[in-house]
Structure formats: structure tokens, C-alpha cells
Specification:
The chain is α+β, with helices and mostly antiparallel strands. It has two domains: 66 residues; 216 residues, Fumarylacetoacetase-like, C-terminal domain (Fumarylacetoacetate hydrolase, domain 2), CATH 3.90.850. Helix content is 15%, strand content 33%. Strand 1 and strand 2 form a beta hairpin.
Amino acid sequence: MRFASYRQNGKQGLAVAVGDAWHGLTEADPAFPGTLQALIETGGEALAKAGNALSSAPAVDIDAVELLPPLSHPEKIVCVGLNYVDHSAESGFKQPDYPTIFGRFNSSLIAHGAPILRPSFSEQLDYEGELVAVIGKAGRDIAEADALAHVSGYSIFNDASIRDYQFKAPQWTPGKNFDDTGAFGPVFVTADELPPGCEGLRLQTRLNGAVVQEASISDMVFSVARLVSILSGFMTLKPGDVIVTGTPSGVGLARKPPLWMRDGDTVEVEIEKIGILSNPVRDRATAKAALVA
């Protein structure tokens, strides 16, 4: 199943794809099954039952509503760095034997179509197209062979980074958590609709239509299953937790000269069989001034 979280007339909604159409309900309707996050956290058959019920709900024009991140308030957003050999090389790092792990916070999340905002004090706004895995079943010390059974589904992320802030200190947290830089969506696709661990699917990032990143998910050093197993070795993974699995080579930082995203740009991340996450890029000061005007 394919789900989209949205807002219409100030109310949150959830839609499911039926062929090329979408059907959904908002929280204003007594039959609203709940948010995607709540359904995943409930577990069991909650998500499947909601999808079946929504399939007979009224049609939703997905282009006429405000899309939201599939999950807006996950407890954990765990990001993985240096998970493609070519990206580690272009970044000047030796490929690690253990994944490079850092956190994002949900205050940075934006949806498909929302602007990625560049702060006025930095020009170094970079793109990073990535696969998202969403945990559907809690677990600790999960064996790699069992790990994919804990994944509910997948989505797309653009881990937009403020590079000079990322490298102000050994920890990357500041440069990875600016407001309005964590693009997430446009949809959530259940795991049963995709190859195990999304192996073999193509990831492509485009800036103003030009391809800047392209790789197979199979090129990841640490597969989805391996990441779930490793992460669960030191913390309990819970339903609704988000794992952002790393970006391939081609980032703007590594180019000569560097290729930074600027006001007026459009950045797209496409993963085969999942969809296209598209966001305009705006200067934060200009965007905020427009909201006040």
C-alpha cells in the first residue's frame, strides 16, 4: 500500500493510493482511522485495516491538498553517514567498518513541495538524496536475518546540510538540523510492495533537472537489514522510528568548484518504485518576509 499524509482545511488527513487515484479522510470525519504515525505505532493489522477502509473513502486530489511528511513527529530520526564507498572517498574519509551515526530532530522536517530554506549566514546548502526505512515492530538485539521483519515501509529523504556548520565541530549535529532542511516524503510505501530492503532500486538526485547523484540501493555498505541489526544492538527500536540510510557520491561539497543549492533552485530525489521528492530552495530571510507581507 501507498499512503500520503496531508492537511486540508486545517485538518490532518491520510490517503491511500488505489491505482492512480487517492482516497482519504481527514480527522474531521468520524471514520478517520488516525495518522500514519499512530497506525504504525499501534502495530498489528492497524495499518492494513486502515488502508482497506480508506480505499473506499472519497477521492482526494493529492495535488490540491497540503502534503505533510509521512510521519511528522517520530521519536527517533537516525541518520547514517558514509554508507556508500564512493561518497566516503569524495568526502575524504576512509570507509568505516562501523556505520557513522548521527541524529536529526523532527523540528527540521518538511514535506514534499515545501521550500528548503538557506540561512542568510551560509552559502553552503548541500543536497543528499537518501532512502528512508520506517520501523514497524519494536525490537532490541535484532538478528540481521530477522531485521527486515521489523521494517514497516520506506520513503525518501533529502538530508539537506549546511556544510560549514556541519564541520564547525567533530559532531555533525548543527549542520544537519537547521529548520526546514529535512525534506521527507512524498509518500510511505509498505515493505511488501518493494524488494526486500529495497535492494536493487535506483536512487537519483537532480538539481534543476541535472542529475547530480545516481546509485543503486544495493551499493550501500550497510544494508537496511544490517543497519536495523546494528542500531538495535545499543537501543530499542520502536514503531515509527525513522532510519535515513545514507547518501551516494555526487554531493555539492565534493565538486570543484562546490555546487551549493541557491534561492530559485529545485531539487528532486527519486527512488524507483517509491516516487519523487521535490522541493524548491529559498533564502530563509526572503521566504519569511513573504509570509509576513
